[in-house]
Amino acid sequence: MTQSSVGVSLDGTAWVVLNASPDIREQLARQPDFHPRSLRGTPIDTVVLTNGDIDHIAGLLTLREKTSFRVVATAETAGILERDSVFGVLDRSLVSLDAIRLDQPFDAAGLTILPFAVPGKIPLFLEAEGIASDSEALKAMGEQTIGLRISGGGQVLYYIPGCADVPDWLITRLDDADMLLFDGTVWENDEMARTGTGQKTGARMGHVSMAGPQGSIARWTGLQARKVFIHINNTNPILQPDGPERAEAQAAGWTVAQDGMRFTL
Q1: pTM (two decimals)
Q2: Structure confidence by residue, pLDDT tens digits, 54-73
Q3: What tens digit of pLDDT does each residue of 180-198 get?
Q4: Which of 228, 226, 246, 227 is nearest to 236 (CA)?
Q5: CATH tag for 6-256 (out of 3.30.365.10, 3.40.50.300, 3.60.15.10, 3.40.47.10)
């Protein structure tokens, strides 16, 4: 819900983890499917990173306990891990770091995963000072922010936890989706300033708002797939179960993710 780590499996035995959030230890402890089956064993086959945000890479440090798995990311995101010596605690004799290319599929635990660029930005902690807020540069396309098309068993899941805009081409691209897990960070672009929790807008952080004519609810109206909002900031009023924002999203066919929620496709 608040972080965006998701586990995906074709057989319920070998798992692909989508992003390693800072609270991943607690998430794994709550899910028996992820408990070790042997001393220092792990059912995690692969961790896929969609960008280099702290919310998506910090949990890798929790997975350092001499267990074997691989990390896959674009060359740009992999470079963040390689340049920061703290990630050297991941024993490279056990944990591989594999670079993936945009629009070239790869296999993970029996699933086929296709990475593709979505509007986004580099992680906040790597920005140079003085970058313009809400500029078109924050909607740049490249390896810094990606979405994933995950297929297996005749079903297609799209995972896009960070997205600065919903252009027409992205809507068309998801025509074959059975389920979409999408960026639900903010309800309105300026909600952090309005709630006194910060000055950055949603666009400044690389996240499209839910509300408004260009917001994700309106833009994804025609998508027939099951739609789930994930990665929800604690300022977002959609977290209030009886609030009008939650009712509006549900009326438009959206589910609001909860920690531990499970879906079967």
Answers
A1: 0.93
A2: 999 999 999 988 889 999 99
A3: 999 999 999 999 999 999 8
A4: 246
A5: 3.60.15.10
